[in-house]
Amino acid sequence: MKLLSNNTLAERYPNMPNIHSIKSLILLISLTLISNANADTLAKLDKVQDLAILGQQIKSDRKPLLLLFSAEHCEYCERLTAEQLSPMASDNTYKNQLIFRELKIDDAGYFNNFNGQQISYEEFADLYAIDVTPTLVLLDHKGRMLTRRIVGYGNPDFFSAYMDEHIQVAVKKLQQVLN
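RESULT FIELD:
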């Protein structure tokens, strides 16, 4: 039996893709599956639902709340979440130090604030003077800010170090408040 070369096969079957195209397609599919699997393993930030209950958790766990104020169709919010916050929320070092939540300021409806009272998402954002998204705040069990707000998302290279400084201050202040 005589084996045919790639050229002979291509001449005989002109509509058949060549072996390089098939290998490239398999590689592309594999990389896409791996990329999607990695994205699925990243933690998604839970949405704010009841801050009165969350305040009790902050107090009992002794971990500050890292709250992302975001908005629908906010490209920088999506980038911040994907590039920084989701990886942090998946990392045990940060999970042991913080509680992560997201609040979309343009969501309709109401939720319970730290006092257990119903409040709209927009009204809650106004309490913290949120004019720009994304904005991050680190809060104690009563909703008090433990550090300055972090407004915007510009340079991802320096963001981690900047966040780490804020987290260290927030953790230390919460421990002082709870003692």
